[in-house]
Amino acid sequence: MTDMVRFSAKAMALTAGCVLSLQLSSGQVTNVVRDDERQLREWIKALGSDEFGGRKPMTEYEDLSINYLAGQLEGLGLEPAFGGSWFQPFGMVAVTAKPVSNALTAKGKKKVTLRYPDDLIVWTARATDMVEMKDAEYVFCGFGINAPEYGWNDYEGIDVKGKIVITMVNDPGYYDANLFRGRNMTYYGRWLYKFEEAKRQGAAGCMVLHNTEAASYGWHVCVNGHLEDNLALYDPETRNADELGMKGWLHEDGARKLFEAAGMDMDAALAAAKRPGFRSFSLKVKGDVKLAVSYDIQQTRNVAGMLRGATRPDEAIVLSAHWDHLGIGTPDESGDAIYNGAADNGTGMAGVLLAARKFTELPERPDRSIIFLFPSSEESGLFGSEYYCSHPAIPMEKTVANLNFESMGPAELTEDVVILGGGETFLDNYYVAAAAAQGRYIFFDDDNSDGWFFRSDHYNFVKKGVPAVVVENGLHPLDPSKPNIYPMESWYHKPCDEYRDDWDLTGTLANVNLQFSVGLSLANAKAY
Prior knowledge:
Helices cover about 30% and strands about 25% of the residues. It is an alpha/beta fold and about 525 residues long. It folds into two domains: about 5-75 and about 310-525, Zn peptidases (Aminopeptidase); about 95-295, Glucose Oxidase, domain 1 (3-Layer(bba) Sandwich), CATH 3.50.30. Strands 2, 3, 6, 7, 10, 11, 12, 13, 14, 15, 18 and 19 form a twelve-stranded mixed β-sheet that branches. A four-stranded mixed β-sheet has the order 1-21-20-22, covered by helices on one side. Helix 9 crosses helix 14 and helix 11 packs across helix 14 (about 505-525). The longest helix is centred in the first third of the chain and has 22 residues, at about 25-45. The relative contact order is 0.17. Mean pLDDT is about 95; it is low at about 1-25.
């Protein structure tokens, strides 16, 4: 059930922030709004142009993209965030791995052959030519979850060190509304979590059992996403040797083969794993794993500027928007092969730059520092923000909140603002107040059945204990006769995600001002 907080406010098309609307006359506000929109369009048009080649990291277009952002930050009078540099470099490794002879074999009560990529799709993050596991044992660990707050531990009573863990996708709430958060998926349901927990438990490998309904996508998505160039952060000291030797997805047909080789009933095991009290077990099926690996080590960079706080400069609010997109790829029906990413995430970057300009134009600097961060490699796995959160410009324990700008438009002005992830932190009150000052209201949407809350840069801050929510455009246009003619499904991850002069950015601008207002309030709050 979703909750709604609504204010009886004037039905007016306020797209300027509450600070400006209180300080200026109506005519001045109109001019400010027009100037803000002009500047917003200018940044989006530039960042989403063909010249930037789709802004794919580790290509010739990276330098152009990050130097443009650094130039804008410098032009706004900000200081570099990384010890005198606008850039934070970090290593990435792109790995392609597949089983030798395109198959894995194992033996229990009978022998089984798992065909690649029909029965399984596997990869690794290790920078090595070969991954080998001798006589590896397969164990079934239910959902592969260790969640004390929900009284659930699939690893209790089983030693998985050096073994290959098989887990189910999603979490128990998907099958029983009384468990976890019901269909509102937790991070424990994410396939990335399954790998993280298996590594913590000392496993040699982990394969997630695919199910189309529970995953919300088909097997082809798993295959297409991991056939080649699987990206990971790269540690030059270890060459990622401490990472799982094998990660992967296991098709239901492949899993059934393993259970049959074990002489066990897979359907009964899956049913039992969905109930409290399930005990993980070994399939008593073992086999050698030999993966042929090719890899490429490269470097990419985050970009950030800082406005130093006046009285609490060692504390920070981070405004972020990933700079990367998909680059040049498969042409569409018109022959266009440049995935410009004007909306995703040109609008987000432009929003952060506009907020930065507003902060620099304040008559007095805010008390806390403001960091304007543009992470790399969001599209390939949130890697830039992951690296930043482990190597922050200001420590995570001194970071008050992250306000992430993700695909902010095109968006028409709406009466409401949708927030995912509400009800968890003090941020709710700040957003409610800022929206009310705009004559709008907050709709707290707690439907996270598709895991959307975990799929953008803010979540790496959340994992470090820094409050963050997802801000989305509302559902109720102020003028229903003028709906958004470019809805997200029409351009998302397509070459047609290009800037257009007829974009409606009134909602985009209102949401940028909302974020600015929240950021300013947080920066000056005595307590939060």
